[in-house]
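Course exercise 7: structure representation. Students receive a sequence record and must write out the corresponding structure in token form. The form below is the worked example handed out in class, using Glyceraldehyde-3-phosphate dehydrogenase (46 residues). Read each field label carefully; the graders check that inputs and outputs are placed in the correct fields and that the protein name is recorded exactly as given.

STUDENT ID: A-19
EXERCISE PROTEIN: Glyceraldehyde-3-phosphate dehydrogenase
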Amino acid sequence: MTNPIAIVLGLILVAAYAYDASQGGDGFLFLMQKQDELIEWLAFWR
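STUDENT ANSWER:
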């Protein structure tokens, strides 16, 4: 991954988090919980 691509992806994540926080903040927590479940599921199949 090149530096410009990493910077753009980072800015997109920060903007998405800021938007979610301005709308109540529950979406980010939901996504983190789902990501945790996905990681556990992938670890099971490893």
